[in-house]
Amino acid sequence: MRYVIIGTSAAGLAAAEVVRARDPEGSISLVSEEEHLPYSRPLLTYLLGREISPEKIFLKTADYFAAWGFTPVLGKPVVQADPEAHTVTLAGGEVLPFDRLLIASGARPRRPDIPGLDLKGVHTLRNLVDVERLEADLPGDGGEVVVVGAGAVGLKMADALVTRGLRVRLLARGAQPLTRILDQVSAELLMAVVQEKGIDLHLHSWPEAVLGENGRVTGVALNNNREVKAQAVLFSVGVEPRVEFLAGTDLAESDGIRVDSFMRSKTPDIFAAGDCCVPKHLLTDQHTSFHIWPAAVAQGQVAGANMAGGRRRYDGILPMNSISLKGFRLITGGHFTPDTGDGEIFTDLDRHRRRYRRLVFQAGRLVGVTLVGEVEQAGIYFQIMAQKLPMSALPVDLHSAEFHPGKLWG
Amino acid sequence: MKTVIVHPERCVGCMQCRLACAVEHSKSKDLFGALSEVVRPKARLRIYPGRQHLAFPNKCRHCDPAPCQQVCIAGAISRTPAGTVQIDPDRCINCAMCAMACPFGVLTFGATAKAPEKRAVALKCDQCPERQAVGRVPACVEACKVGALTFGEVGESQVDKGQAIAHMVFKSLKAEKEAGPPEPEMVALWRQLA
After folding, report:
1. Chain A interface, Cβ < 8 Å to B
2. Cβ distance B89 to B112 under 8 Å?
3. For residue A130, with 0-12 CB atoms within 10 Å meaning exposed, 13-18 middle and 19 or more buried, which class applies?
């Protein structure tokens, strides 16, 4: 059996390892346009903030591919995947035939449609090479930088840049960061920390143009006719799936490759996993795109098992995120508000200790959770949500301050 | 795999295991030394008030496959050849992804003497590798005075527990014919310890 896997990050490697465990003989080719050894994408902001040393970004050692019997095809982007002919064509004309294909090509940062993006000093952060570019291009101590988009990545980028001694302006389009996953109370707790760190958060702000002189960024024109100075601009305004090599096929839609519960695309021999795929939501059963490392690993493992002839089911994606800004911890997941009228939102705030618990219930089940400050038991809440346990089946009331492992299992 | 096995029905919540755990994870491995260390050591297991039992010790189960290991974005969580799930404090970035994945809520965050330059990393039971290397049982097991924490094979412990329950059921069936109220489970277990 010839397996071809496009992508050597979370989903691709997880799948390859599962395939190898089930099929010791088959040939497994791992294709990536990046030449580096597999590395951890979420650590890029930590690398930028010099919180980790450069070698810690790599997740595998140099002998990884050989030890697992994988054929690495690195530094070669895929230009076309042909589901009819069962081939993948690489830049340079090389053609890889496959019996089973996994598309784990990930996503690329979105760029807004504004003038000035071709100026030197405009960046996004997605690949290891982006950090190298940033290292070479960022202004020195006291320089001014604008980060556009106050999502999870934008916040971490702003944090990293402030740690490097830069003056950071962080632009949030709405009245708070993370509008879709945080309520006002948790957003206020987060914003207080952002401010303490010295990040200059601009609410209700977005760029209308990047300004420059002699091909180099000098500032950003904001909405409401404002202008701020900047020697560099970083965009973190979401990502889009990398599926351009599927042009001419019906596999990909604008938000990615739709997959069934077995991580299979419309074509039976082609699977997809990770940021480029659109799996079903664990709670709503609707196709939902949500990008996070742990989900990519889980999807990769399911896809790998099914590629090698297994029949493993993916439970579905449960949106979740952990935001950690040195000492401040925030974990959210599931629904932000109930879907139905009979829903309930329960909150429990300890402002003094900066602890907050927000639970969303619907039809007698937990469907959403936000924890700020004390997040140790987050996994228990997620497990209750993922297993769709009715509240009546729990030995202790979720609303209670007594909700802890002792009352659950002791 | 040999692991620390929790018997919540025996726990009285004295917290001696927590003290022993913190001391074992200090630099000096000595209670009085630990108190004056720059990085104050933290226990890796917690005792909660229980529902059916007096107290409930909650600690890492060293799951296989381990959800925390699968979600770790820093590659800091691995499994030792002996089967223990361990966290490398040098690689840990304190992102709390593991807390999001752990279905038992056993992770805590704090400083450790193993990486004193970091303000906080994820901490959990490591089954005392340094003690095991010299043939000693983990510190919490040694400290437990009531047999609520034992060190052994999970499978064997399950068999023992099953037999104990069967024995008790058999005894209580016989006891019904005789006079006197049935003995509560707690009392029977306490007797076994003697």
Report:
1. 14, 40, 42-43, 46, 51-52, 56, 59, 293-294, 297-298, 301, 320, 322, 324, 326-327, 329, 331, 333, 375-380, 382-383, 395-396, 404-410
2. yes
3. middle
Q: Are A188 and A165 in contact (CB under 8 A)?
A: no
Return the residue of B nearest to A54 by Cα.
Answer: B91
Contacts of B107 in chain A (CB under 8 A): 376, 379
State residue B179's pLDDT score: 60
Which residues of chain B have a CB within 8 Å of the CB of A14?
Answer: 70
- Which pair of tokens denotes residue B5? 């096995």
Q: Which of B85, B86, B87 is nearest to B95 (CA)?
A: B87
Decide if A410 and B103 are in contact by the 8 Å CB cutoff: no
Give the pLDDT score at B106.
96
Judge: A396–B51 Cβ closer than 8 Å, yes or no: yes
Q: Does B174 touch chain A (CB under 8 A)?
A: no
- pLDDT band (50, 70, 90) for residue A305: very high
Lowest mean pLDDT among A59-63, A322-326, B138-142: A322-326
Partner A, chain B 7-26, Cβ-Cβ below 8 Å:
8
Distance in angstroms (rounded) separating the CA atoms of residues B50 and A410? 4
Cα distance from N-terminal residue to C-terminal residue, chain B: 28
Residue A175 and residue A204 in contact, taking contact as beta carbons nearer than 8 Å: yes
In chain A, what residues touch B119 (CB-CB under 8 Å)?
Answer: 326-327
Q: What whole-number distance in Å separates Cα of residue A97 and Cα of residue A137?
A: 41
Asked whether the beta carbons of A72 and A90 are under 8 A apart, the reply is no
Give the mean pLDDT of chain A.
95
Q: What is the pLDDT of residues A198-220, one digit of tens each?
A: 999 999 999 999 999 999 999 99
- What is chain A's length? 410
| Statement: the pTM of the whole predicted model exceeds 0.80 | yes
Number of residue pairs across A and B with CB atoms under 8 Å?
Answer: 119
Q: Does the pLDDT value for residue B16 go beyond 80?
A: yes
- For B151, the 3-state DSSP assignment is strand
Task: Compute the radius of gyration of chain A from its Cα atoms.
Answer: 23
Q: Is the pLDDT of residue A174 over 80?
A: yes
User: Would the pLDDT of A119 be above 90?
Assistant: yes
What's at B139, amino acid-wise?
A
Interface mutation vs chain B, best among A55, A291, A315, A383, most B CBs within 10 Å? A383
Tell me which chain A residues have a C-beta less than 8 angstroms from the C-beta of B102: 379
Q: Which residue of A has its CA nearest to B12?
A: A410
CB contact under 8 A, A407 and B46: no
Q: Which residue's structure tokens are 């590629």?
A: A307
Name B87's bridge partners.
B77
Contact indicator for A13, A20 with CB cutoff of 8 Å:
no
Establish whether this prediction's ipTM goes over 0.95: no
Residue of A322, A344, A327 lying closest to A335 (CA atoms):
A344
**CB proximity B105 to A under 8 Å:** yes
Whether residues B51 and A46 touch (CB distance < 8 A) is answered with no
